TrEMBL record, chains A, B, C, D:
It comes from the Bacteria. GO terms for molecular function: nucleotide binding. Coiled coil: none annotated. Pfam families: GFO_IDH_MocA, GFO_IDH_MocA_C3. Residues 138-268 form the GFO/IDH/MocA-like oxidoreductase domain. Signal peptide: none annotated. This is Putative dehydrogenase. Residues 2-126 form the Gfo/Idh/MocA-like oxidoreductase N-terminal domain. InterPro entries: Gfo/Idh/MocA-like_OxRdtase_N, Gfo/Idh/MocA_oxidoreduct, GFO_IDH_MocA-like_dom, NAD(P)-bd_dom_sf. It comes from Pontibacter virosus.
Length: 377, 377, 377, 377
């Protein structure tokens, strides 16, 4: 693991997600750019001191020299955005599989470069767009893909949070500080942090691609350097249209991602706050509540659940699904077997490239007087 | 009553709303442009045949000649949009108070003219933006106005319906036929029918006015002549921004109007599907469920409810609140008394003008390549 | 109308319910045992002074002497329980149809007597068990009756309120005072006031009859004279079992009546707080949300709704459904026609008798050391 | 781990729960009474073959002989009920801490004996009443304990499931087979399997103890040997009363545990289906939604959550909370430190004894003609 030291939210989440199903063991790390902090973190995690490194560069150098059956196999990178590309590049080039937190890189340029490196490396790559790990999100995608809803006409995706309603940065809120800092986050704040999740979900569930967008991007809290709020009109490659909302100044909201996709005959409605239910609505018959853990859901939803219906599975399980599917694919590759299609359903480098293109295009649109901006990769 | 014959949805609603609290008695009507149908309708409603008229022109002529204590006092106009202006004008000019269904007129031009007629007439005027009649919508407005949420930053309003998902017009669905017909509805379809409700609600609850908008307006169902779908980015006079969604092709949706208004410290969230609850969310404390019929709500919410908490009040009661408040104001005027502020809280001609301006501006924006269109009245 | 003067909750509700659909006109009344109050109330309701009476006895005497086409046709009795029997008896014997508030009488003995009087009178009788007027409650009954759920196994009905959590009686809370006073309410408090509603709903939806019960009846608030809380184990005539909860000391609850009926293959779940939704749950497929105003519900549910799906209908509409159906049956009788089966679906004297039997049996069981008490009428 | 081989639901849950926070490592096991199956299971879990045992007896014999720093420290027992006592006894007597699935033993007699063994052993003991591991259940308990709700008056707890609606036993549904078999489950079916959870939750949240009960216990599905349904009237040591429902034939229900506790001033309402919300209702002010992961909840709720508000934590996390708190207490003991009070809040042997007493008393009451049965331990 690279990054994820004290005060990092997502590092701990990655560790739980990885070990939840027992498919990974944490063996080495460079947890902070401060060697002392890295060592303290490694110790608290029970790692052997000789595998806690002062820098990610050293980690790669040393681990690559270990015998193949001892050295680390998969590198998790959980650093702020500006420190995604370089460790990911080195990991792939040293022959390790990579799990990388989103957004994939600091810029679209880096993303394209990383894609080409990954393609050449032959190593596997997983981008942690967590929400696609929820069983009922997978079910939504499958239902759309089945054609039962007819042609898709509308996609509404929204991700309201309230935690940046005040000027939180600059104090000891480490999360707020780096996420609002252009030198660490890149050109986008909320649009990069949560807008990319919403965008990814929209494309994942609908099976469509955005072709044009029209964005209203705002800095609401005085003194903030990056956008903390935005709304985007969307057009998709099949002619459908939609709306994407991402805001971190919606006072009182927790983490209320929601997606609705409407077809000719019916629609799906998934809300993070009730993550184990998929509302399926129809033109002429009762709304149905499809649930995690039941016998009637698709093989994708079944594969990504661990308990019978009525035992809520949450954020950590969704995250763990990414790790588990990635592990199953790595194992299959190692054993020369073809991975099941359900295992391969995790976000990868292509989603990362599109996410970075979203950031570039949405920020450009925000600054443009023209209504529609073409979505260019 | 003018309009509201057989097959008309909203006419029956107006009648129930008017009589629910016993403040009105239906005494005369011109229910259809077809005299036979008008008479049949009048008969079925138990009206005296001599007060069922063949046309609204005749109604005004005849009623105006009746002795003051016999003739009608308030005219309800529930015709399609193209037949709003003329009967409303005549009603005011003949000295009757007017209840008019929304959108107010066929065009903004007519709306401005009607406003000037109404101002000169000294008669009272009520526009039936039903949703502002809900106790918890009134509570939302009061809470925003109280300043407890701080400055308003975001307004999200959405009104998804699914009933026009197919090509319904042209058959015997009278509702679908006139609402999608430019010669009866005007320049807008969904934006006029439900977009104006959403717009009105946004301004009513937030206490703000839209100054700019950016619209994506669509005809989704093949062969339809007016928009059946749209999404609009909004900017308000205090610097807040927002999103308005109005669609009638959201398969599986019923009548799911929802408004969320976010301030610096908290927010309100009202959904038509759970109309007696107002969710009040705060930055640092639990979300609260404010309820119709309780003792802790404002005088506005209390005045507009009839039963103790837990006895659901619905659409007809909300509609009846408009009629009841209008009656209370008329009665106060007749008795030379000052109406209470709670009674005066019904939508009037100013809301009608802004609604018509919304239609004009939103359709113009939909056709424009520029991102932002100024909201002009 | 008899009763329903100032301070009476249910009188006003009856008046709105009766006039909501325009099928009734209030023509006369004896609104209070205090003649002055009665006259003041009549005046405020716009009644002709000569038809506002000082007592119900006088009302019957005078109205019976009016010409048939002038005199009142239906008597609504909305007095406290101890004043139900006598005016109901007189109304029937004077040839009027009767709408009577529940519980039907002061004692089971009176109920049996009233039944025999009603049978002989040939007049129609409606008992206002409001909750059976909700479209989705009717749908629940129809679904059970259709056999689609299989044999019924379990019935859970609960009616928690919180408004008697404190000692409210004795002050100016008129509702609390008479409802907790044995001389006005009878042998039961909560069990009579809301327990009878729950019991009626259980039998109405399940189509079953209670044969045995086991009650825990409590006076929770110190100084109170009648039960304010209770729970009852139930056994039904088909072998099903169930639980009935009725309490008025559940602090924080409004009026949260709920019924769940489970069959071999599925179940129905209706909650007053979400009255326009019927949850239909199945063993092996998704839960369905059946909704008021849709096209797929039964003729009973359709007949008892006024607006399209998504326009919430509430307590007053449910109440109005009782009045409307009663009016339709009276009209059919007057015209010598057979009423439709949907119209006849209103609670009548038989439900009243069973309600009074419930009160007698449940209070007896509460005092008994034996587990099971037979349900005797 | 003892038990938890192929086809066992709860064994896998225990393993995930234990490793979720990285505090446990699975080192040895006797997973099945069939040695071959045990070895296969151990292999699939990646255990060293020399620590996969043919029987639990052998496990204790062998592990006890390993050096202290190599041998297992905590024994998880996840066998059917009839195989709880003996391995638990042996584990304690061999000096191991014990995690035991509920209900604690086959009979109350065994439970009392085990308590005395545990007391003498000085080893720690955890009984996996999972639901007390939810942050919002802990919050409910804390809120009741704070006195803010006033004296507790009512406790309603219900646990409806539908999975035994048909005769599932005898086929290859291993879960159904042993849970309905008196020789493996003991004298109770549903009352032992889920009734004990409901009972435990009632006492845990209310802080009260049941003193009397009156049970209706049923076998609904023909041919079944143990109760699959029941309802129980409860009396508590402070004079409060309540209702407990536990059924496994509620067709369409998943795992819908719910508890409501009412005090003089307010109440708490927790539902498993919305596990991260605690509804707190008050007599005179809005209902509040208290949420996992927020800053305003108690130290107990905060300690038992891993992510910020809005990231749902579910069943596995609740289960993991038990394991984590148990680990923290063991570690504190090993280090001679006093465990924090939040760590000590896990169900222990006392809850196990009361659970077994509940089974004995509730089954006795079910057979009794007397209304009330004293709760005897």
């Amino acid at each position: 693991m690279i990054g994820g030291g004290k005060g990092a939210f997502i590092g701990a989440v990655h560790r739980i997600a990885a070990q939840l199903d027992g498919a990974y063991e944490l063996v080495c790390g460079a947890f902070s750019s401060n060697p002392e902090k890295s060592r303290a973190c490694g110790a608290s995690l029970g790692l052997s001191p000789d595998r806690v490194y002062d820098s990610y560069q050293e980690l790669f150098r040393q681990e690559a020299q270990l015998p193949e059956d001892e050295r680390v196999q998969v590198i998790s990178i959980v650093t702020p955005n500006h420190l995604h590309f370089e460790p990911a590049r080195m990991a792939l080039e040293h022959g390790f599989h990579v799990v990388l937190d989103k957004p994939m890189t600091f810029s679209l340029q880096e993303a394209l470069e990383l894609r080409s490196i990954a393609d050449q490396s032959g190593r596997l790559f997983c981008l942690t767009h967590t929400y696609t790990g929820y069983p009922m999100v997978k079910e939504a995608r499958q239902l759309v893909a089945s054609g039962k809803l007819g042609n898709i006409r509308k996609v509404y995706v929204e991700y309201p949070q309230g935690w940046l309603s005040r000027f939180e940065e600059g104090g000891d809120n480490k999360q707020a500080s780096w996420r609002t800092d252009p030198s660490q986050s890149g050109i986008a704040g909320s649009m990069g942090d949560i807008g990319t999740h919403a965008f990814n979900l929209a494309e994942y569930v609908s099976g469509l691609q955005v072709t044009q967008l029209c964005a209203d991007i705002n800095i609401v809290v005085k003194g903030r350097k990056l956008d903390d709020d935005g709304a985007v009109l969307l057009r998709f490659d099949n002619g459908a249209s939609g709306v994407l909302i991402a805001t971190q100044v919606a006072a009182g909201e927790e983490n209320n991602l929601r997606i609705r996709v409407y077809g000719e005959h019916g629609s799906v409605d998934w809300q993070h706050a009730d993550a184990n239910t998929l509302q399926v609505k129809w033109l002429d018959r009762p709304t149905e509540l499809w649930r995690t853990g039941t016998g009637y859901v698709s093989s994708y939803a079944q594969h990504n659940a661990r308990t019978p219906a009525g035992h809520p599975e949450g954020y950590l399980e969704a995250f763990a699904n990414l790790y588990r599917n990635f592990a199953l694919c790595i194992k299959a590759e190692m054993e020369g077997e073809k991975p099941q299609k359900e295992w391969q359903d995790y976000p990868s480098i292509e989603e990362g490239v599109r996410g970075m293109a979203f950031i570039k295009n949405v920020i450009a649109s925000g600054k443009s007087d023209k209504k529609w901006t073409d979505f260019k990769v």
